[in-house]
Design a protein that fits this description.
The complex is a heterodimer of chains A (121) and B (107). With 121 residues, chain A is mainly β. Chain A contains no helices and 11 strands. In chain A, strands 2, 4, 5, 6, 9, 10 and 11 form a 7-stranded mixed beta sheet that branches. In chain A, a hairpin with a 4-residue loop joins strand 5 and strand 6. With 107 residues, chain B is an all-beta fold. Chain B contains no helices and 11 strands. In chain B, strands 2, 4, 5, 6, 9, 10 and 11 form a 7-stranded mixed beta sheet that branches. Classes of the chains: A mainly beta (121), B mainly beta (107).
C-alpha cells in the first residue's frame, strides 16, 4: 500500500536547523508531487511548499522563503525538509503528504505520520 | 492569501444525527476545495476533493457541495468513528490554505 514514513521527533535550540525525512513506498516516487505541511499545537495545518521528485523542482510558501529547503534522493525514494534559523514558533508537527491524484494537484493523500519538532532553549 | 473560514468552530451531535459544516473562502476558488478529517495524534485524512468528489475508501455518508466561495461538508448519519476535527482546504492558488477547523463532539 502507499505509505509515507517520516523520521523521528527532534528537539532543537533557537537558531539551529532541522532536517526531516519522508520515505515513500508502494508507488513510483517520481510520479507524484510531495508537499510539506506543518501543524502547531492546537492550530490548523499550514502549507509550506511542494517538491516535484522527478526534477527536484520546488515551490515554497513565501512565509518560509530563505529558511526552507526541500530536496529528494530518488535512489532511496525519500524526500527531505530542512528548516533553518529555528524559532520557538516553529514548534509543530511536520507532515509530508503526497499528491492524492496524479495530475490533479494540491489535494493530499496519504500523509506521513508526522514528525514533532520542538524548538526550545 | 485566500482565507478559509469554517463554521461552527465546534458542534455537539449524537450518533445517527445529520451534521453540516460550512467553509467560506475570502475569494472565489471555483471547486478547488478539499475536506479532511483529523483524529487526535493522527495525520489528516482526505475525505472530499474538488468540492464534491468522494475519495476512494471514504464512506458514502460523507458528501460535499458548493462552488465559488461557499462550501459544505455533510455527514448524513453520524457514526462513533466520525467524532474528530474537520478542516477545509483551498487548492485554487498558492499558498494553499486551510480553515481553522471544526471540532465534532459527542453530545
Amino acid at each position: 500500500q502507499v505509505q509515507l514514513v517520516q523520521s523521528g521527533a527532534e528537539v532543537k535550540k533557537p537558531g539551529a536547523s532541522v532536517k526531516v525525512s519522508c520515505k515513500a513506498s508502494g508507488y513510483t516516487f517520481t510520479d507524484y508531487y510531495i508537499h510539506w505541511v506543518r501543524q502547531a499545537p492546537g492550530q490548523g495545518p499550514e502549507w509550506m511548499g511542494w517538491l516535484k521528485p522527478n526534477s527536484g523542482r520546488t515551490n515554497y510558501a513565501q512565509k518560509f522563503q530563505g529558511r526552507v529547503t526541500m530536496t529528494r534522493d530518488t535512489s532511496i525514494n525519500t524526500a527531505y525538509l530542512e528548516l533553518s534559523r529555528l524559532r520557538s514558533d516553529d514548534t509543530a508537527v511536520y507532515y509530508c503528504a503526497r499528491e492524492a491524484i496524479a495530475g490533479t494537484p494540491n489535494y493530499f493523500d496519504p500523509w506521513g505520520q508526522g514528525t514533532l519538532v520542538t524548538v526550545s532553549s | 492569501d485566500i482565507q478559509m473560514t469554517q463554521s461552527p468552530s465546534s458542534v455537539s451531535a449524537s450518533v445517527g444525527d445529520r451534521v453540516t459544516i460550512t467553509c467560506r473562502a475570502s475569494q472565489g476558488i471555483n471547486s478547488w476545495l478539499a475536506w479532511y478529517q483529523q483524529k487526535p495524534g493522527k495525520a489528516p485524512k482526505l475525505l472530499i476533493y474538488a468540492a464534491s468528489s468522494l475519495q476512494s475508501g471514504v464512506p458514502s455518508r460523507f458528501s460535499g457541495s458548493g462552488s465559488g466561495t461557499d462550501f459544505t461538508l455533510t455527514i448524513s448519519s453520524l457514526q462513533p468513528e466520525d467524532f474528530a476535527t474537520y478542516y477545509c482546504q483551498q487548492a485554487n492558488s498558492f499558498p494553499i490554505t486551510f480553515g481553522q477547523g471544526t471540532r465534532l463532539e459527542i453530545k
